[in-house]
Amino acid sequence: MPFRMTEMVGCDFPLFAFSHCRDVVAAVSRAGGFGVIGAVSYTPEQLEHELAWIDDHVDGKPYGVDVLIPEVQAVDKGVTADEIIANIPAKYRDFTRSILREAGIGEDTAEPQGGSQRPNTSLGQELLEVSFNHPVRLIANALGTAPPEMIAAGKKHGIPVAALVGAKEHAMKQIDAGVDIIVAQGGEGGGHCGDVATVVLIPEVLQAIEDAGADIPVLAAGGIMNGRQMAGMMAMGAAGVWCGSVWLATTEAETHEVFREKMVAATSRDTVRSKYRTGKYSRQLRSGWHARWEEAGLPALPMPLMSVLSEPVLRALDKAAVNGNRQAQELCSYWVGQGVGLVREVTSSGQVVQQFKEDFLAGYENLSQAFE
Amino acid sequence: MPFRMTEMVGCDFPLFAFSHCRDVVAAVSRAGGFGVIGAVSYTPEQLEHELAWIDDHVDGKPYGVDVLIPEVQAVDKGVTADEIIANIPAKYRDFTRSILREAGIGEDTAEPQGGSQRPNTSLGQELLEVSFNHPVRLIANALGTAPPEMIAAGKKHGIPVAALVGAKEHAMKQIDAGVDIIVAQGGEGGGHCGDVATVVLIPEVLQAIEDAGADIPVLAAGGIMNGRQMAGMMAMGAAGVWCGSVWLATTEAETHEVFREKMVAATSRDTVRSKYRTGKYSRQLRSGWHARWEEAGLPALPMPLMSVLSEPVLRALDKAAVNGNRQAQELCSYWVGQGVGLVREVTSSGQVVQQFKEDFLAGYENLSQAFE
Lengths: 372, 372
Description:
The structure is a homodimer.
Chain A: H1 4-9, E1 15-19, H2 22-30, E2 34-38, H3 44-57, E3 63-68, H4 70-74, H5 81-86, H6 90-102, H7 123-132, E4 138-141, H8 148-157, E5 161-165, H9 168-177, E6 181-185, E7 191-192, H10 198-211, E8 218-221, H11 227-235, E9 240-243, H12 245-248, H13 257-265, E10 271-274, E11 282-285, H14 288-296, H15 305-322, H16 326-331, H17 349-368
Helix pairs in contact in A: 2-3, 2-17, 3-7, 6-15, 9-10, 11-17
């Protein structure tokens, strides 16, 4: 068996696609990679709907679900959305309203969402149960140590559990927790990340696994945008790669065309690791959004307050950006890693997988030359 | 020819060792790698002496010289050391004296060095001339765009000129300047660095070279500590690797045993990209030195003032650390990259090269498995 991941999760090519978009997940799996749907902000009913759609569009190919989300973890048990909203200081709400007003957008169109939303206590567990009613081949845990009930559920259903880590110390906790696959993401990656770079983190985590006498495959994440890098990571000992940003510049993605154009134009220096979206450090495309917050001198709110405040505003900016609002185009942003500097064009997810395969072979040939 | 660098600079194995220590340079070249002596702070007479020593100890193997140094570039033409010292604010000198006093070290033993030191105007050019009187096979330019006189001198002597870059934009300037080799160093590397990670920077620079219609080999730097990573970088398209930190944990290095022990104990999260040494961002082992400056709330002085103030103090701390002073051991630091987390033991430079060769083969085998 050429790839260990083929054995564990059934994909032909160990290219994992993390995406919030079901179209990307299905397209990647169909093309031979492995799509993982990020179930962030889904209710169990919504997840059921998404997974049913994927089942109908994935041609029987394997896929996975990423079920635990930072916001959920950060919410105390039994706290309602209305209670969270009540904790946002007035000057922060005034500030985000001023951003919208100055961009000519109705400032009351993007208020934090409260109302009927129920407490999140058992959401992760419910999402897991929904997932196991579908032919998922991988469960991933996005932040923090995989909880014992997740490990137990994975074992019961015979489905590997993967966990994301950004530092060797976190990997050691995941090894102890009993995860089956570790996704080691360097600080150059998009979204929540640490500050250890991928090229150091991968060998450091592999060494920690060896030192623990464990045998857990590692997927390399953070900055990986093409098959040559994938070949490089696998030469270093990774069992495959886990990518997020590269799918955002595809025609299937949840991103809008203005953001995709910003991705094509960006270099690797156009991202920022900032707390001004979720309250924890996450890497995003640098935009007027970050500049405005820095100028205002307001420290980021803790998680989950910061997301509850900022997400409706950022979605309003996205909408206005698509409708041609120049200020909104300048302000809009999204999570993306430094690999954005390698994006040359917007293409389809299937074509990205195909190009990865060709470049993976080219990477192998680059190295083979040394032995000719 | 298996390696392009063999053709260009005559080494068997494209592992470049940047070191301020002649012993490391000679040992690496003898073992089949390529040593590059960092001529930082050397006078032409000192460089002549070092190169003569290397010639006597390198067994005819090729080596190179890194001649331009940040401090030199930052000094205005004709400014003397005494004039530089006069610009250091009194409260900064009081602060560094207080660090020494509290560590029980004579506070007047580490004053900025002035006196007979002459202006640095033409130092780089003089160092170049000294170098060309020796059988050097590479001239490297550590910071900023390689000046036309360096390119011209390289061409005249038939010696390739390499330049370090930390961003695609800098690489484009070096391509225009006509350098022969680009060393692309990610922000995880030790010393002066940008913030783009190696795994993104290498493909981004390779793409910029291709877009420019140029044919310039790229050496990958930043976080590279072993042969598996080297194989990974070469799969990505690099022509070899350029390492600094890995040599600091060798028996030949200029580092002292206390610092080497700190390297072995450190993880990748124990470095900091800080201005509190040279005045520009450089990555160092995080120590009490950085904590003290951060607590004091004094912004770093500009280059070269910061180095002129801090280097004598840091050398006094090194000396006291070696003599068993606990506070000095806690305060001492040196430039090192995140790769410090991969250092497991102190060994010889020759053994490091040998281990790189074995791991390079292992990296190739890791990747080959995918094609079996």
